[in-house]
Write a structure and sequence with these properties.
This protein is of the alpha+beta class. The protein has a single domain, classed as MutS, DNA mismatch repair protein, domain I (3-Layer(aba) Sandwich). Helices cover 42% and strands 35% of the residues. The longest helix is centred in the N-terminal third of the chain and has 13 residues.
Length: 81
Amino acid sequence: MIRAQKSEDIRTKSGSNTIVLFAVGNTYEAYNESAEQLHTICKFPIIHYGNIPTLDFKKNCDAWVFPKMIREGFKLCIIEN
């Protein structure tokens, strides 16, 4: 998956405390470590595509998800398509 690889490239450059989100339609998608961290903190379910952990959530959840992740010490990187 191209997005999963792009997510890992950004995290490598920005640090492991970066959550990479892709804005897709009315949802945000996260892959790999970003998905795992969101799952741990926000309890969103993870789906595995092969060996790639994937997580998505509705954009209207950002009002509580983003502040929570920032309070936990994460930086957010949002990629708009």
